[in-house]
Amino acid sequence: MKLAVGLMTGSLGILSEALHSGLDLVAAAMTLVAVRISGQPADREHTYGHGKVENLSALFETVLLLVTCVWIIYEAIQRLFFKSVEVEASYWAFLTMGVSIVIDISRSRALARVAKKYDSQALEADALHFSTDIWSSTVVIIGLICVRAAEGLGLAWLVKADALAALAVAGIVVYVSLALGKRTVVALLDGVPAGLRDEIAHAANVPGVLEVKQVRVRRSGPEAFADLTVTVSRDTPLERAHDVASAVEASVRQVLHGTDVMVHVDPVRAEDEGILDAIRLLAAKMGLGTHSIRLYDVMGGLSVEMHLDVRDSLSVAEAHDLAARFESALRQSLPEVKRIVTHMEPAGDATATYRATLADERQALAELHAISVEMGLRCKPHEVTVRRVGGELALSFHCTVDGNAPITDAHTLTEQVERALRSRVPHLGRVVIHVEPPDTQES
Fold first, then answer.
1. Which of 305, 327, 346 is the last residue of a domain?
2. What is the CATH classification number for the domain harbouring 428?
3. d(CA 294, CA 276)
4. Cα–Cα distance, 152 to 148 (Å, whole number)
5. Where are the alpha helices (DSSP H) in 78-192?
6. Staple 303 to which of 200, 296, 364, 382, CB 3.0 to 4.6 Å?
7. Do 38 and 127 fall into the same domain?
8. Same domain, 310 and 361
9. How far apart are CA 115 and CA 132, in angstroms?
10. Residue 307's beta-bridge partner residues?
11. From the centroid of its chain, how far is CA 6?
């Protein structure tokens, strides 16, 4: 309609609108193809999906609009200064532009609604494009009114209003195209709105997170991807660290709905971490167990003594080398430690155990009963188990003590019982005594 009426009336404003609408048709077709491609799932070659196709479609539409504007501006300048073209402001011209405005209003609203629902930049670009068509069509109508006024009032200079209207249309299209092009380029370069990174970092600072070190966000069409690196205390258990990461993901999705969030957790030393915790964590990192850690202040420096649990299968040289590496790492981690003494002992991970003989069991039970009577110990041994590991006996039992007694007293009691057993039972190796309050035994 615009092309036919523009050729009949000679209106550059309507012809510019006809060319504009023709490019709209091409752009809409490209948008249809782009949206269909961008909706395809990620594959091995496109791990972030195909959403960038929408941005490329919007960029191509921008280039088409700018090329259109070059022709409109050139022709308008020709009509203003170098040639005269008779313009007929007929009723068909006004009717055509009125119909165009109605169509532009309906489709811009429809596109805006769907673009918002699916967060599609390509559809949003079309909606913005068609909304500006309303204003450009209005400008053309104003130009036609001025041409009509020139005929009625005898003001010849008003005939130039049609060319001025075309320039106004071109100006509107250039402004919208540059704004759309800027947004498209920013999206292609993975730019994010100002303040979004800080908003995401604030959301990621959930309980358990010490610091949000890195935030990266990129969009691929309607899809958004966020990569974060957060730190937690290095004594945080693995399951707890996973729960913290899950909480970060949920919190970030409150800011960017439907975002694919990837959280990397870095363990770091917390400010309130003590020396004992640091020693235990370092030993665990090296696959060692440690206990009986003692700290001594010696002339302004710390002296550390501890027991290291090593595998039973290690030789003395291998165990010593492992302990030496641990001591070196500990000195680097805690420069304030001046002296380290480690007692290496087998972790007791041997599995070749056998049931002891009946004579072994009777001897262990008799000696245990005799010790309890002779020492007057307030301990009731039960659940006694005797096993043979290699050439040694391994003894374990439960010992009932006062539930209100300090644990240090209970430990001293078990040490006394263990020493007495070793003096009476030949080849006694590992002894494990479990203390418990009376109500546990009864239950």
1. 346
2. 3.30.70.1350
3. 9
4. 6
5. 91-118, 121-153, 161-188
6. 296
7. yes
8. no
9. 16
10. 291, 343
11. 55
8 A C-beta contact, residue 327 and residue 364: no
In terms of Cα–Cα distance, which of 128, 123, 119 is closest to 31? 123
Nearest in space to 234 (alpha carbons), one of 289, 273, 201: 273
Same domain, 407 and 422: yes
Same domain for 6 and 81?
yes
In angstroms, rounded to a whole number, what is the distance separating the alpha carbons of residues 73 and 66?
A: 10
40 and 176 in a single domain? The answer is yes
Cα 377 to Cα 121: distance, rounded to the nearest angstrom = 81
- Pick from 60, 50, 1: which is nearest to 27 by CA? 60
Strands (E) located in 221-371: 223-233, 260-268, 289-298, 301-310, 337-346, 353-355
Quick one: tokens of 93?
């011209």
Interval 66-88: pLDDT, tens = 877 787 787 778 767 776 655 55
Chain segment 195-228, per-residue pLDDT in tens: 888 889 999 999 989 999 999 988 776 678 889 9
> DSSP secondary-structure letter at 273?
-
Domain tally, the chain: 4
- Domain extent, residue 206, equals 196-268
> Which of 346, 378, 396 is at the close of a domain?
346
